[in-house]
Design a protein that fits this description.
CATH topology: Maf protein
Number of domains: 1
Distance between the termini: 10 Å
Structural class: alpha/beta
CATH class: Alpha Beta
Amino acid sequence: MNIYLASNSPRRAHMLAEWGIPFAIVTADTDEVMTDASPEDCAAQNALAKARCGSEHVDAGLVVGADTVVACDGRILGKPLDEGQARDMLELLEGREHRVITAMAAVLMPERTEAARISITRVFMRHLGEHEREAYLSNPEYRDKAGAYAVQGLAASFIERTDGPMDTIVGFTMGDFYALCTELHVDVRR
């Protein structure tokens, strides 16, 4: 069974490669939308849109899309548009708990059968000093990251503790990937 990743995320590609799963990347040119829906529904809608878009380039195989959002105080935090927005996001998150939601969706081709999963991890970020925050923002790491930080990068020291899968925060939950494969009767463990 051919596996296709409908994502431009180097982190997601790296995770699949680390797990020894052969895959190819397909284009998924969709706009991530932050709707009035719940954070879970928003992430799921985006993940499914990516998988569907990627499936348009595939004759046969499993196309997987993923989306990660951060939720705090009833707000959905996607990727910051600029440094100012990233600063606002970090100031909102620091010293408190927030949720990181990663949705994964798959489309099995040519059947066009779909499945989706959602994983949530609670994250507790410590208070940051202004100098520490500004030093982090001077690095491009915050760009293209939900909530303006990458737990697997320089921002790892910002996190006091987590409750839930770490790979949910990184943006590709392995348990959900295998659950999608099982639900769609795809064996990737050969």
